[in-house]
Structures are given as structure tokens and as C-alpha cells.
Automatic annotation (TrEMBL), chain A:
Domain of life the protein comes from: Bacteria
Organism: Shewanella hanedai
Identification of the protein by name: Long-chain fatty acid--CoA ligase
Signal peptide (UniProt feature, chain positions): none
Limits of the AMP-dependent synthetase/ligase domain: 129-300
Family the entry assigns: Belongs to the ATP-dependent AMP-binding enzyme family.
Keywords annotated in UniProt: Ligase
AMP-binding enzyme C-terminal domain segment(s): 358-431
InterPro entries reported in the protein's UniProt record: AMP-bd_C, AMP-bd_C_sf, AMP-dep_synth/lig_dom, ANL_N_sf
Gene Ontology biological process terms in this record: fatty acid metabolic process
GO molecular-function term, one example from the UniProt record: medium-chain fatty acid-CoA ligase activity
């Protein structure tokens, strides 16, 4: 598919008067097509050293440049605007944009960097994994596979040209890019991009844009439904990440109608989708694989063979045919499965996967902490909290230690409780006895 | 009232900020206290409980909650 095919598709589905909007502007698909052409011409008339780093904010101008980059076979990495954790020497020229279109294209900024470590390969697009605390991986995708992946989503989600879709999930992330943005573009739906969605912005968007579909997470659903009344404008929402609790699901169903659960990853794109249902007192969030996707669940671990998945991690150019996701599931590949967590010790907080081993390494950098073991704390609206059992002889109070940790850890990764012990229980081998610690402290915080 | 609102932010919310580290004009969202959607929702519930009011739907607008000073004005309008 090239940009002319996409245009033809928009023409055929009568979408030229549908709109693309963000918090600054509203434009028609017709205007969007013209701007994509302007950006394509700009790309054709400038010489670039690739792979390029494209710093992508949640705006229409970024979206249109992204389409132009894809259809011009540019080799680029998609990064959030404030990305600082990727080795800049891996990529060459850096492309940034302001969110307002300027006729003279002064809103485009290209920073040249003649040399880089990575060999340019047309059509490749790199995504950065979340790497909540450790070094993020760079995932190599092929442009045509990404589009095929998004087309696959349309076999399950009832999106069409009359859908009005609110996308607050970032488009530099695979959930925003592959599950939300491209399926909507392929059917020519009206799209509103936004970021930092809170109840105030949400109400403003509802008034101005009147969405019929929204891509959310269970934690944001809970936050957005404060004193929310039943509304008939929504057809469905799509959620990914955490599980819904019964109360939030019921609220979501009342407000939004249907609720679809989506399972996927940066590596594989969208793997499986299911519609969430009430099942007695529980919530059934089973998903089933999309066409062509093969699932294996052995010892609760999910492995996936995806026809449109990633090629490999940059600088780690081998991988198994069945990709081990590191996720745990209950159910089976035929009737569907529910994702229950990560195989490794980790929690999900504020939608971010936090691996304990990575967080422990950071905590141990504190001068008064000799060693630390983390356990899952109580569950609140953001996921599980973190309890840190630290080995220390410090006279600092636990709350003071916590405050100091909060100065260098991200807020979502700062333990909610610190327990100071002169010595952690250990196995004969000298390793921390995590089983004993979990037995004593896991989910006991109050 | 401004001091009470500041006190709520410092003591009750997960924002990791000291009382003297912000004032009534500091933005609550980007570039200021960077309150996320969940914390902000908790904050609204807390304000309603503390000041025994209920914000009407129309009052839930960005311009009424952009900083502590604006929030104090919004609360004052609901307590009249």
C-alpha cells in the first residue's frame, strides 16, 4: 500500500469530509491528504542520513508527517518527544515538529547527524519498548507488516468511516500506533488525538468532538467516570493492559456500551481481542487470537507466532518462531485466554510494567541501603503498590528514606512503604530468601 | 482556603511535593505539579468531601482547576 492507495480508499469510503483533530486544530481528510503531500515533497527534496529519529508528539502534524515517513519508505525510529533513554549514536538525523502547520514549513526542525552506528534499511521502523526502569529494547518492524497488523484489528473491532474515535494513548507506542491510529486511518474514521487525559479534558473533548469510540486503560476509565451519567453517544471502548474490576467494568459498560479487551505488545502488535462480559460476580476478559496468529499456552506461559510481528531486536538479530511473551495466561488458544500477569517478578502500576529486579538495582544505589527485596503491596486504583524491605543500619525513619528514594525514582516506581531490617533472610547460597519475605510482607501493607 | 487546599495536596495526594515548593499560581498539570488523571480525580473527590460541596458538571472545566487560586474561586462559587 502507498499513499495513493490510502487516498483512493478514503475517496471510496466517502471520508474526505471526516476530520482529524487534536487540542490545537481540526482538519478534513482532504486537507490532511494535501499536507501529507507537502511533507512527502519536503522529504523528497531534502537529503537525510538514515535511520532517522522521529520525535512524535500527540498532534495532527506529527500524525501527517508519520504517514509521509511511512509511505516514503524512510527508515526511522519512533520516539516520544522527551525521549532521553535511547542511545542517540544509534540513529542519524533527528526530526522534530511543532504542532502547528506553517506554510513555510518553519515548524519542521531537522538536526543533522552525519554518522550513526546503524545501517539504514528502507521500510524498517523501530519502536522502543517501555523499559520502565531498565534499558529499553529497540524493536525492528517492517512497514507493510505494521499495516497488515492494523488491518487484522478491523476483523474484530467494528470501526468504520462514521466512527468518531478518541485516541489519548500515545501514537509512538504500539497500542496507539497499531491498535488505535492505523485501523482508524484505514477506514477513514474521524480521529481526535489528545494526551494527558483527565476528567476535565475528557469532558471538554466529549462536548467538542462527541466521540463514539475511545481507546482507554482500566485505570483511566476509573478516573474518567467520576459522576458520569449514562450517555448514548458511545458505541464501544477499547482497553488494554490491566484487568477491570467488576465495579469499574459495570461503570464502563453503562457509560460506553461495549468494552473490548485487547492483548498485544511492542514486538507483536495486536495479538488477540475479546469483548469483556460479566460472568456471575466476575469479569470475563478472555481474548481470542486474531486471524493468522498462533498461540501456545504451556505451563501458563504464552508464546505467539504472528504473521505480522517484529523481525528482531536491533543488534540481537535472532529470535524463535514462537515468541515467548513473558506473560502468563489462563485458558486456551481455541476458546480464548485471560492474561493474568508477567512471568517474572513484576507489577503493573499506572499502566507501566515494573520489573522488581530493575527497580531493586536502582534502590540499592542509595547510600544507606545495603540490599533490598520488593514485594507486591495492596491494590489501589493504579494497580499494585510496592513494598520495599531494605537491609540497612541507618537511623533514618522509613518515611524519610522513602522521601529520599522519591527524589530519584519515578513516582510510579517509588515504594509506598519501606520496612527497615538489620538483615534480610537468606538462603544457604547467600541469596535473599524471597519466598520467606513474600510470605511475611506480600499484600500485607495497610 | 488557599492554605487548606495546599495542605490537601501535600498531605493527601501522591504528588511528592513539599508545602513550600509551590504556590497558588503553580499549574497543577504539565509544567507544574504534573498531576496525572488518577491523582486529579482523587483530588476532586477530596475537595468535595473536605469543603462539603459538589462541583456541577459545567464547573468541571480546565480553566477552573488550573491552579490553587482558581480552585479556591471555584469552591467559593459552590459554597455561596
Amino acid at each position: 500500500m502507498n499513499v495513493l492507495d490510502l487516498l483512493e480508499q478514503w475517496k471510496q469510503s466517502d471520508t474526505f469530509n471526516n476530520t482529524l483533530s487534536d487540542d490545537h486544530q481540526v482538519i478534513s481528510y482532504q486537507e490532511a491528504y494535501l499536507r501529507i503531500s507537502v511533507y512527502s515533497d519536503w522529504l523528497a527534496s531534502n537529503s537525510f542520513t538514515q535511520p532517522m529519529a522521529f520525535y512524535c508528539a500527540q498532534s495532527i502534524e506529527h500524525l501527517l508527517m508519520l504517514i509521509a515517513l511511512m509511505f516514503n519508505e524512510v527508515n526511522f525510529v519512533l520516539l516520544p518527544v522527551k525521549s532521553t533513554d535511547v542511545d542517540k549514536e544509534l540513529f542519524a538525523d533527528q526530526l522534530t515538529l511543532k504542532p502547528h502547520f506553517c506554510d513555510m514549513l518553519r515548524h519542521i526542525q531537522l538536526t543533522k547527524q552525519a554518522q550513526c552506528k546503524t545501517v539504514a534499511t528502507p521500510g524498517r521502523i523501530y519502536f522502543k519498548t517501555s523499559g520502565s526502569l531498565g534499558t529499553p529494547k529497540l524493536v525492528v518492524h517492517q512497514r507493510h507488516n505494521l499495516i497488515a497488523n492494523s488491518r487484522n484489528v478491523l476483523t474484530r473491532l467494528p470501526l468504520n468511516a462514521s466512527s468518531r474515535v478518541l485516541i489519548p494513548v500515545p501514537m509512538h507506542h504500539m497500542y496507539g500506533f497499531g491498535a488505535a491510529l492505523w485501523p482508524c486511518l484505514l477506514v477513514g474514521a474521524s480521529i481526535h488525538l489528545t494526551s494527558n487525559l483527565n476528567i476535565l479534558r475528557f469532558k471538554a473533548v466529549e462536548r467538542q468532538f462527541a466521540p463514539t469510540v475511545a481507546y482507554l486503560t482500566p485505570s483511566t476509565v476509573g478516573a474518567l467516570l467520576l459522576r458520569s451519567c449514562k450517555s448514548s453517544q458511545y458505541e464501544f471502548i477499547v482497553s488494554a493492559g490491566d484487568c477491570f474490576d467488576r465495579q469499574t467494568f459495570q461503570q464502563a459498560q453503562t457509560k460506553f456500551g461495549r468494552v473490548f479487551n485487547l492483548y498485544g505488545s511492542t514486538e507483536l502488535g495486536v495479538v488477540a481481542i475479546g469483548e469483556i462480559q460479566s460472568k456471575g460476580e466476575a469479569v470475563d476478559d478472555c481474548v481470542t487470537a486474531l486471524p493468522g496468529v498462533k498461540i501456545k499456552i504451556e505451563s501458563e506461559q504464552i508464546a505467539v507466532k504472528h504473521p505480522f510481528g517484529f523481525d528482531f531486536y536491533l543488534y540481537q538479530q535472532t529470535r524463535d518462531v514462537f515468541f515467548n511473551t513473558g506473560d502468563l495466561a489462563r485458558g486456551d488458544e481455541i476458546t480464548g485466554f485471560s492474561v493474568i500477569g508477567r512471568a517474572k517478578l513484576s507489577i503493573n502500576r499506572e499502566g507501566r510494567l515494573i520489573a522488581f529486579s530493575e527497580l531493586e538495582s536502582q534502590i540499592k544505589q542509595h547510600q544507606h541501603i545495603q540490599d533490598v527485596a520488593l514485594v507486591k503491596g495492596r491494590k489501589d486504583s493504579k494497580g499494585h503498590t510496592i513494598v520495599a524491605i531494605v537491609e540497612s543500619t541507618t537511623e533514618l525513619a522509613p518515611d524519610e528514606l522513602r522521601r529520599q528514594l522519591g527524589k530519584f525514582l519515578p513516582r510510579y516506581a517509588t515504594p509506598s512503604k519501606i520496612i527497615i531490617e538489620p538483615q534480610l533472610p537468606r538462603l544457604v547460597s547467600g541469596k535473599i530468601n524471597r519466598k520467606q519475605i513474600a510470605l511475611h510482607y506480600e499484600e500485607t501493607e495497610f | 482556603m488557599i492554605n487548606s487546599i495546599k495542605q490537601l495536596i501535600v498531605e493527601k495526594l501522591d504528588v511528592n511535593v513539599g508545602y513550600d515548593e509551590f504556590d497558588q499560581t503553580t499549574p497543577l498539570f504539565e509544567g507544574g505539579l504534573a498531576m496525572d488523571s488518577i491523582v486529579f480525580t482523587e483530588f476532586i473527590v477530596l475537595l468535595e468531601k473536605t469543603f462539603k460541596i459538589e462541583f456541577d458538571d459545567d464547573a468541571l472545566a480546565v480553566e477552573n482547576f488550573s491552579n490553587v487560586e482558581k480552585i479556591a474561586e471555584t469552591i467559593a462559587q459552590h459554597t455561596r
